[in-house]
Amino acid sequence: MDYFSYLRFVKKRELFFFKDYFRNFYDGQTWKAQKKILWTLEIVETLDRIPEIYFKHLENTDGLYEIRAQVGNNIYRIFCFFDSNNLVVVGHGFQKKTQKTPQQELDKATEIKKQYYEEKKPHKS
Question: Is the pTM here over 0.90, yes or no?
C-alpha cells in the first residue's frame, strides 16, 4: 500500500459507543441497513470534512449531532456528541419516519449525554 492509500484510512476521529444504546438499535436493523450504518460510521471516523448528508449538528441543542444513514426510503439517525476534539461519543439511534426529529428522541439523546458526563466524573472517596 502506498502512502496516499494509507492516509485514506487514518482515523481523524475515534468513536466511543456508550453503554449498549447503539448496539440495541443496530441489532434490530436489517443486514442492508447495518452495512450502510457501518459504512457511514467509517466516513465519520476517517474524513477530515464530513458531508452534512452523513453528519450534522442539531440546531438548538447543547452539542448534539446526528450520524445520518439512508437505505432506500428508510432513514436512520444515530445521536452523538464530542467529548474532546476527536472523540465522538455514540448514543442511541432510531429510524426516522417524519420530517422533524421527534422530541422524545432528542430528550433521550440529551439524557444519554448527561449520563455519560456524570459517569465520567472522577469519584471522590
Answer: no
